[in-house]
Amino acid sequence: MKTAILLLIGSVISYLIGSLNSSIIMSRVMKKDDIRNSGSGNAGATNMVRTYGKAYGVLAFVLDFLKVVLAYLIIWLIFSRVDSAVFEKYEYFFKVTSGFFCFIGHIYPCFFGFKGGKGITVCAAMICILDWRLFIIGAILFFALVFVTKYISVSSIAFALVYPVCTFFLFDKEFSILKHYITAKNTFGGDEMLFRIVAVAIATVFSAFVLIKHRENIKRLIKGEENKIGSHKKEK
To answer: b/e for 23-36, b at 16 or more Cβ within 10 A?
Structure first.
């Protein structure tokens, strides 16, 4: 019961921090505009680059990435002191909770009419917190596809598709709550496989959200109407 309450509180904190969409805030403060009225209408780093330039896009990316880290640090600072044993035992779930609700807040920000971004940066930040190996694989795949195809959307979609698969093969006791349950032999089966499946299910939910948010991009890719990097043509 105590664990559930802590997770619920962590969810609320993370959602509120996630709702601080940097692209919307930057466009309003620095440009007296709303990024959602320009380009694709998406409140994310890619649209910031196309609308205001690379510097704004990079800053939006960094701020959105850091807000996930901030959410987890706040949860860690508070809950590790409230009950260190519970936090240590369920640390994986606290990380997932902070990342997931930052992700939801970014997509559906309560401060900005529940219309935000697509969540790729936030998802990447959560992956980095959970497992640096997954983050590196995702980053290499993302930038390689951007270089080859010139489509940010293709890289984002591929990232979403690969994430659950990589989670299944890389999920192990060193990076999960399994270190509290299984022996040093790290044998497959039992609790390990159960938690591996849970981790894959969580990754699949993230990926599903990303794909849903990119449904219009997918339609444009099929029609050959998607904008490439460097294109300033207004998206439909």
So the answer is: bbbbbeeeeeeebb
Q: What tens digit of pLDDT does each residue of 189-216 get? A: 455 677 778 788 888 998 999 999 999 9
Provide the whole-model pTM.
0.82
Contact predicate 81/55, CB 8 Å: no
Look up residue 108 and give its DSSP letter.
Answer: S
Of residues 138, 137, 175, the one with CA closest to residue 157? 138
The answer, yes or no, to whether residue 179 has pLDDT greater than 50, is no
Q: What is the pLDDT of residues 221-232, one digit of tens each?
A: 999 988 887 665
